[in-house]
Amino acid sequence: MGKLTNIKPRLSSVAPRLKSPPKIVEPFYSSPEWRKLVAQIKRQRGAFCQRCGSTDRIIADHIIERKDGGADLDPSNIELLCHAHHQAKTAKARARRARGQTP
Question: Which residues of 78-93 are buried (b: 16+ CB within 10 A; e: fewer)?
């Protein structure tokens, strides 16, 4: 049997109605103090994920988040994470806070 090539779809894709709000970076993360600390930690520890060893898109992340009372510029409260591990950790912390649980 031949292919039906001349039948066009009746439904077109629907454009999303809601757009994600743009991410607003806290001014703290643009401060010279934070940038200097991150550069220092990457030099000392190496610029790789402390969980999986990846060197792709490394982010300095607070172990105890600032929103939860973690120290801003304490190197012992900072871990280097790849983008995937950072996203997963942040999502878990956000869900925990939404449930009203403390760290």
Answer: bbbbbeebbeebeeeb
Are 81 and 52 a contacting pair, CB within 8 Å?
A: no
Instruction: Give which of 61, 63, 66 is closest to 81, Cα–Cα.
Output: 61
Query: How far apart (Å, rounded) are the C-alpha atoms in residues 38 and 98?
Result: 29
pTM of this structure: 0.73
What pLDDT, in 10s, does the model give residues 38-97?
999 999 999 999 999 999 999 999 999 998 899 999 999 999 999 999 999 989 988 988
User: Which sign does the torsion angle of CA 33, 37, 38, 43 carry?
Assistant: positive
Domain boundaries, the chain: 48-103
